[in-house]
Amino acid sequence: MAEATATAGIRTIAVLGAGTMGRGIAHVSALAGFVTHLYDPEAAALAKAVTAIDRNLARGVELKKVAAEAAERARAALRMAAQLPAAVAAADLVIESAPEDIAVKVRLFQEVDRLAPEHALLASNTSALSITEMAAATRRPERFAGMHFFNPVHVMRLIELVRGLATSPATLATLHAVGRRMGKEIVLVNEAPGFVTSRINALIGNEAFRMLQEGVASAADIDKALKLGLNHPMGPFEMVDLVGLDVRLSILEFLHRTLGEAYRPNQLLVQHVRAGRLGRKVGRGVYAYDERGERIAGEPGRRPRARKRPGYAPEGLSGMKRKVSTGQAPPSTASAPTYSAAGWKQPKNQRAARAASPCRVSMRGGSPGSRVTSKESSGAASPSPTALRYASLRVQQLKKARCFCGAGSRRSATRSLSEKKRSAICSKSGIGLRSSRSTPISRPRRNPASASS
Ligand SMILES: NC(=O)c1ccc[n+]([C@@H]2O[C@H](COP(=O)([O-])OP(=O)(O)OC[C@H]3O[C@@H](n4cnc5c(N)ncnc54)[C@H](O)[C@@H]3O)[C@@H](O)[C@H]2O)c1
User: Fold this and answer.
1) Of 134, 170, 229, 266, whose Cβ has the fewest other Cβ atoms within 10 Å?
2) What pTM, to 2 d.p., does this model score?
């Protein structure tokens, strides 16, 4: 009740920027009963926002988290605006969620200050930047604060309410009440670079990239370690794909400038951004996503460098497998690994995928009597007699090259046959040489371009 009174002056909210966060803020704002104008200079962003909000409301109804009538009211309360003046003309509160760039935000707030009603409160959803600096660009710094929402906004429960140097207690009280009406918990933070959450999260995420770059573990295993070992609900790479790698980079650059060396952005993160791997929003970040935003199975993240330390378990042989593959998606690396004689692990499903592949190299029990299997045996078309003859000749050559040998020297012998050779043989002959036991040992190559494939 007290909250309803405190927000009595706020009926209309303008949200600026209809990207990942802006559309989420518009969703919770409309659902809380505020007339909500969502502005973006990009028509495509507005169109995408309409679809996303509609879909998320529908899902809320389906899951019985949102009443059907409330969802309908929210849809009716939402207005899309392609022009800034129309968006803010009647606003009691303006929440900015434009790109994380201080120059963009300052320019935008200067315009908003000119266009919005005198009484309107202004808030920024910045992840890290200075609220005081933005407030100083307006004639109402006491009616300016940070409202830092979390992604996805309609799910995450927190708002960091950030007090700038001049923010008045009345402004904080009203924004606190608005946040509560949106169903959020509030923490009050005095302005500091990165507030509480971005400052800690940026460090964890940056360290994860550093570990990936060093080959400590794969992206998937780093994520898994933090989820299962430290009870994080998401791994750092899942998180950065959701946040946006460009957004994370901007935050780190700012924290590096303001807080020092500990926040220097890792080079692999910088490379991902340069390569356009910005995360879920573009379908590719550390992992790859389909058009519905679902993670594509078998995207294992960057392969670590294989090391011959006993017990050390590299991601596996996905790079090699792809060379030999026949167009099938690489298998997921999520399943339980098994350890080969060399102490290396290989996820079971990779072994299964190799077994299912029409093109494969094998050593049956390490015996010299390796058998040749045709594509037919794995469900593909039968090879021609010429191909069979060619394959059996190649088997003889391989035997000579000591690829198939007794159990004692199998490991060293398998290393002697380069993967390239195996691929070439397979693809020329259309036939695979199959192994039921041994893991071909090939050192996964360290290649930044395939960091996440
Ligand atoms: N992504 C996250 O997880 C997350 C979490 C909390 C806070 N934030 C913060 O929210 C803000 C927006 O991040 P995002 O992830 O939604 O970015 P985004 O890139 O998904 O969306 C930004 C949107 O702003 C629009 N835009 C560009 N210039 C504009 C302008 N002058 N006026 C209005 N809109 C403009 C763009 O067209 C785009 O649609 C950033 O300050 C970011 O730090 C992001």
Assistant:
1) 229
2) 0.68
